[in-house]
Amino acid sequence: MITIRRALLSVSDKAGIVDLARALAEHGTELVSTGGTAKALREVGLAVTEVSELTGFPEMLDGRVKTLHPKIFASLLHRRDLPDHLKQVAEAGIQPIDLVAVNLYPFEKVVGLGCKPETAIENIDIGGPSLLRAAAKNGRDVVVLSDPGQYPQAIADLKANRGRISRGLAQQLAAAVFARTAAYDAIIHRYLSRESEPAAGFPPVLLFRLDKVGELRYGENPHQPAALYREEDFRDAPGRLVDAEKIQGKELSFNNYLDLEAAYRLVREFDQEAAVIVKHNNPCGVALGTDIAVAFRRARACDPVSAFGGIVALNRPVTEEAAREITTGFVECVIAPEYAPAALKQFQKKPAIRVLRLNWGRPAAGGLDLRPVGGGFLAQEPDASLYSELKVAGRREPTAAQLEDLKFAYTVAKHVKSNAIVLVRDGQTIGIGAGQMSRVDSARIAVSKAREFGFEIKEAAVASDAFFPFPDALEVTAEAGATSVIHPGGSKKDAEVLAAAEKHGMVMIMAGQRHFRH
């Protein structure tokens, strides 16, 4: 057990500090503090010794130097089990500090709200992390509280043990310190790296702060435990899925989050009312509409069988009519920027449906796309653009309607697992071939799906996420009735593919930019 005879309290966030100080004082603990915290404690009638009284040295440099003094750090760092350490501090007139409660300058909050660089610099805490680390290093004999959320447990332990705290709890709290200071430094590192505008390229070190949001229902399979973590950052990142509000429904699973991410990333690409239905990380129906209910009906019509148990994303507020359409079938989740009150009442009739609210804008620039591999991560720039150019290949120019469908189809193809072939008519997917090892197989699947659900393929637009290595996949769609095609080009056989398109009377557009999605 650690007897708490003297405690140093110095906090930016005053939440809970008075309760902690009172509990300590009730057990005879001497309270030592700095300016703002000392004032808050005195206002409730607690006796406090200022740090400057203890050190004999006033705060200086506009508060940059307060606790950075041997009389503070020796009182924390000396080992209570070494006679020589005890002798040295006794000769220097230094008494132990047994508990430290410190939280750091709110750097994340200040820069998150937007501030001048000089303001950000002044909110980089130096004394706070130093105190925390010193106390945590000596965590066998010093209790260190780095977050107000830890106070209730410390108070309970203090009361249960009559002014003492267990070494087991102290060591848990010490470990938490290094997570806190590492996360704090990571945020500062990212901010300063951004502000210094380094040369193009990938940084030599990537640091992230990930805070646990909570446990998930399960992972990819029920026997796999899983959890969700939130990346804490200073950037104003619009529409992060991790910040979505769940209005109703069961807890989300690992797979739910993956499918929600795929769905909302696609639907927010469109300016017009749009609906996306995703199953197993691939869109199985995407459509535009004159209103959001129409868009959903058209998206579901693409493949109503695959839509069963799917994830629905809408880029407009959900109306009662749209909610009624959605609830006629089985869906796992719905995500949209807003819901009409009548729509929410409609969803309440199906309480198992997870309904999420998330306001989003266009995908934010910057950041990295990270993928875990054994022992590390792959990093790449996000796939944030659609095409580098739209170049007509061959003799035929697209009509305005064809060009709109080709753009729509290529947008969808960007979000379909490779190899991807997408068939579109009038702003509606009518067949999607995804994730095949052969592009011609994807083409056959897209055509088969369209026919299965009664779509007329004649005059459809075709999009391929990558070049056609051979004419065969294009010929499958052309023979089914498609009359226009968009792909990035770049194959050694581009001329043969164009010749096949010309033979079948197809308009061909080269986009110049591939969209493999693995």
UniProtKB/TrEMBL annotation:
SMART domains: AICARFT_IMPCHas, MGS
Record GO cellular component, one term: cytosol
Protein family: Belongs to the PurH family.
Keywords: Hydrolase, Multifunctional enzyme, Purine biosynthesis, Transferase
Source organism of this protein record: candidate division TA06 bacterium ADurb.Bin417
A Pfam family: MGS
Hydrolase as UniProt keyword: yes
Reactions mediated catalytically: IMP + H2O = 5-formamido-1-(5-phospho-D-ribosyl)imidazole-4-carboxamide; (6R)-10-formyltetrahydrofolate + 5-amino-1-(5-phospho-beta-D-ribosyl)imidazole-4-carboxamide = 5-formamido-1-(5-phospho-D-ribosyl)imidazole-4-carboxamide + (6S)-5,6,7,8-tetrahydrofolate
EC number(s) per entry: 2.1.2.3, 3.5.4.10
KW Nucleus (keyword) present: no
HAMAP family (alphabetical): PurH
Pathway in which the depicted protein is active: Purine metabolism; IMP biosynthesis via de novo pathway; 5-formamido-1-(5-phospho-D-ribosyl)imidazole-4-carboxamide from 5-amino-1-(5-phospho-D-ribosyl)imidazole-4-carboxamide (10-formyl THF route): step 1/1; Purine metabolism; IMP biosynthesis via de novo pathway; IMP from 5-formamido-1-(5-phospho-D-ribosyl)imidazole-4-carboxamide: step 1/1
Domain remarks in the Swiss-Prot or TrEMBL record: The IMP cyclohydrolase activity resides in the N-terminal region.
InterPro entries: AICAR_Tfase_dup_dom_sf, Cytidine_deaminase-like, MGS-like_dom, MGS-like_dom_sf, PurH-like
Residue span(s) of domain MGS-like: 1-146
Lineage of source species: Bacteria, Bacteria division TA06
Name of the protein described by the UniProt record: Bifunctional purine biosynthesis protein PurH
GO biological process terms held by the UniProt record: 'de novo' IMP biosynthetic process
